[in-house]
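Progress note, sequence design subtask.
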């Protein structure tokens, strides 16, 4: 079958920020053979390329003068059930939250705290998606990825991926070297739940859920998320624009003396994680709007597009926020969103 190609198309429906730029070409990839054909075609033409899943963690800043490889490889297979655990392979083009819903409906636990995160399965390991006290790595078993240069498939286990907070080897040493094709998760068949995230625990207590099921956990996470994160269908955004900064206990102590209300969570190895949303709010940005770009009124970590914002307008505001947080707190915010500049 010939590759499904779209020429000179608007990317507005393909990014949750709703930025209206054009791409010279888009290839829709439905299986692994098409993926290697796509790279042969790209190498033959010398075109720049970009892998795209659901487009919920990217910011386009100009028209893309190359080929967008839109991954749409679907499929979910239950591989093995052992004492208390189930191993499931899921392909990169599946919608993440559909997969979480499928697991929760089967009473396979582990991913319920990651409910309602937009995007596709294949992007999950890239930044080791996380929410409400859980990260993808907690239930990761392995993944298969295609090496771009050679077209060969390689298996990665957990230690190969170097997962960290909003990070993995695919964002660092192996950036743009592999395309993640499928992921195997290991889930629990017993009702283990994780309620240590303060806001989640408070929600459960308030709703008399002393012994919640994983279905209760999914419902709770969905409710909390809906109460403070904008739905990209109505208001363009890419979730948290910045990562929460991780600083040493010493620096934290110094800041805490100056700002006694500074919130923080223990990270690892003597480091503390500071909510960037707090820093941005304290710097006066929450609810700020200039033309069609704004800082979301219910969550200062989220930058929103009120309609016709350009990526460059978003970058301008992001630079101003970064500068003002640095001047006030001496902390340099780093974007979580992948800014596409070429
Ligand atoms: P895309 O945006 O399409 O791609 C992201 C990056 O990964 C790009 O650099 C792309 O080139 C690369 N990529 C994508 N797929 C592959 C692949 N198969 N192989 C190699 N590279 C690939 N994230 C969290 O961690 N926690 C949250 O709670 C959370 N909440 C969010 C809430 C909202 C409202 C929104 C809009 C976003 C949120 N996000 C959150 C961010 C985002 O949903 C995740 O990062 C998600 O995993 C991105 O998936 P995607 O398919 O949309 O990736
Ligand atoms: N806060 C403020 N003002 C704000 C927002 C937050 O003061 O406007 C402070 C409050 O102290 C609040 C704390 O920040 O208690 C934490 O806020 P929240 O629970 O909303 O979480 P977050 O740290 O802002 C992170 C992730 C989210 C994830 C939630 C829940 C990052 C960069 N963001 O946000 O992930 O859903 O925790 O676990 O780690 C994403 O990555 O796109 C994303 C949405």
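Output:
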């Amino acid at each position: 079958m010939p590759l499904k190609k779209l020429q000179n198309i608007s990317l507005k429906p393909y990014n949750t920020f709703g930025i209206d730029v054009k791409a010279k070409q888009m290839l829709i990839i439905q299986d692994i053979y098409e993926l290697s054909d796509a790279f042969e075609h790209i190498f033959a033409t010398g075109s720049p390329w970009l892998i795209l899943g659901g487009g919920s963690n990217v910011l386009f800043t100009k028209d893309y003068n190359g080929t967008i490889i839109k991954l749409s490889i679907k499929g979910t297979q239950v591989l093995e059930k052992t004492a208390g655990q189930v191993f499931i392979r899921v392909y990169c083009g599946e919608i993440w939250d559909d997969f979480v819903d499928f697991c929760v409906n089967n009473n396979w636990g582990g991913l319920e705290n990651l409910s309602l995160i937009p995007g596709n399965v294949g992007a999950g390991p890239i930044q080791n998606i996380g929410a409400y006290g859980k990260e993808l790595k907690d239930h990761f078993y392995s993944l298969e990825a295609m090496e771009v240069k050679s077209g060969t498939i390689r298996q990665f286990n957990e230690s190969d991926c170097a997962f960290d907070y909003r990070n993995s080897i695919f964002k660092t040493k192996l950036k743009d070297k592999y395309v993640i094709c499928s992921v195997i998760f290991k889930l629990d068949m017993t009702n283990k739940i994780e309620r240590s995230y303060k806001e989640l625990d408070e929600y459960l207590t308030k709703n008399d859920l002393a012994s919640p099921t994983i279905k209760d956990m999914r419902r709770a996470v969905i409710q909390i998320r809906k109460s403070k994160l904008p739905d990209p269908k109505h208001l363009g955004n890419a979730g948290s624009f910045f990562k929460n900064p991780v600083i040493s206990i010493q620096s934290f102590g110094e800041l805490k003396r100056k700002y006694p209300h500074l919130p923080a969570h223990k990270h690892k190895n003597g480091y503390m994680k500071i909510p960037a949303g707090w820093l941005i709010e304290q710097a006066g940005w929450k609810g700020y709007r200039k033309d069609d770009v704004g800082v979301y009124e219910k969550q200062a970590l989220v930058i929103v597009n009120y309609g016709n914002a350009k990526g460059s307008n978003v970058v301008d505001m992001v630079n101003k926020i970064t500068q003002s947080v640095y001047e006030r707190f001496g902390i340099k915010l780093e974007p979580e969103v992948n800014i596409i500049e070429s």
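The chain has eight helices and 20 strands. Work on this subtask will continue into the next period as scheduled.
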